[in-house]
From TrEMBL:
It comes from Salpingoeca rosetta (strain ATCC 50818 / BSB-021). Pfam families: Sulfotransfer_2. GO terms for molecular function: sulfotransferase activity. It comes from the Eukaryota. GO terms for cellular component: membrane. InterPro entries: Sulfotransferase. This is Carbohydrate sulfotransferase.
Length: 331
């Protein structure tokens, strides 16, 4: 190839490459602009006056009440929604079961570790598949029993009350998946379809949206805030993110419970055994197969920010998580 012709070919190739790169930059820039515009049109909920969102993000748990001040005179408001609590009079605690927030996982371990439903069972050993149907304890009911949370709040003032919270979007998907799973039995026909995520995120009555669509108890769709808070007051003393259940029990709750029982003569070994049942649990109640379109996820999250029902779950617990998540998604 002649020198002049070679230079012309190189120049043309260089120009084409530059145009291609410019196009990539423009397209990439367009994506960035679109993402920024989408975020501007979908502002995060304003944190509530009593929000613990920052602390929950930084620590994965929050003490909502000074544990040293919990006594028979402690005043807790009644939750807007009444659920089942698991109570140990012997070890002075009340677990508030927020549905779809790892409650079944905790209940089984409470029965094994605190209630000693299967005497001699050790953490790490397999357990029967019928644990949900078994009684709370092999001892008397002071070791472990069920109770309406509204009654527990009124009567058990000097006990440590705790609950777990969860990212509202993850929880909503889990609720919908559970409802779909419980729709499977062929012997029963359901007159209504499973509600879409759009419907659940925008409805003023997401619980009612499940009525006639599944055999799942519609209370699974209640907001978390209605269980752990009432107005500006906290129903529980401690909350933690369910992704850090092991740390919450082993590093925080169990040590506090043992400290409060010091000098009483009560053997606290069952508390240690209970905590040990979480030793091999890295992630609890997190969907194993996550096939989610990211744009679709952002769209549903945006609807949840404005939800008349679930918005307060963000305002109290997850505004900071969302802000950090969105910042991390930006190029």
């Amino acid at each position: 190839m002649r020198p002049l012709r070679r230079r012309a070919v190189i120049a043309a190739a260089t120009t084409a490459t530059a145009v291609l790169l410019l196009g990539v930059v423009l397209v990439g820039g367009g994506v960035v602009v679109e993402r920024a515009q989408a975020m501007e049109s979908c502002p995060l909920p304003t944190p509530a006056r009593n929000s613990v969102s920052d602390a929950l993000y930084d620590q994965n748990y929050v003490w909502l009440r000074n544990v040293n001040a919990i006594d028979r005179n402690t005043q807790r408001p009644t939750a807007r929604r009444n659920t089942t609590c698991y109570v140990s009079d012997r070890f002075k605690f009340v677990f508030h079961h927020v549905l779809k927030n790892g409650g079944s996982t905790i209940m089984v371990r409470l029965k094994l570790g605190i209630g000693e439903t299967i005497p001699g069972h050790k953490p790490g050993e397999p357990w029967p598949g019928d644990m949900h149907q078994r009684g709370f304890t092999s001892h008397d009911k002071s070791w472990l029993r069920g109770m309406h949370c509204s009654k527990a709040v009124r009567e058990l003032r000097d006990y440590v009350h705790f609950a777990f919270v969860r990212d509202p979007y993850s929880r909503l998907r889990s609720i919908q998946a559970f409802a779909t799973h419980l729709r499977r039995p062929a012997h029963r026909a359901f007159p209504r379809p499973i509600p879409s995520l759009d419907t659940l995120a925008t409805s003023s009555d997401p619980e009612g949206a499940f009525r006639g669509a599944t055999s799942m108890g519609i209370g699974h769709a209640m907001p978390q805030s209605g269980v752990v808070a009432s107005g500006s007051g906290w129903v529980v003393d401690f909350v933690a993110d369910i992704r850090f259940m092991r740390e919450a029990f082993q590093d925080h709750l169990v040590p506090v419970l043992k400290q409060r029982l010091a000098g009483t003569g009560i053997d606290t070994t069952p508390l240690d055994n209970f905590a040990a049942y979480f030793g091999m649990t890295k992630q609890v109640n997190v969907m194993k197969k996550k096939e989610v379109d990211l744009e679709e996820e952002e769209r549903i999250r945006c609807l949840l920010y404005k939800s008349p029902v679930y918005r307060r779950d963000y305002e109290l617990f997850y505004t900071t998580h969302e802000r950090k998540r969105r910042q991390a998604s930006q190029p």
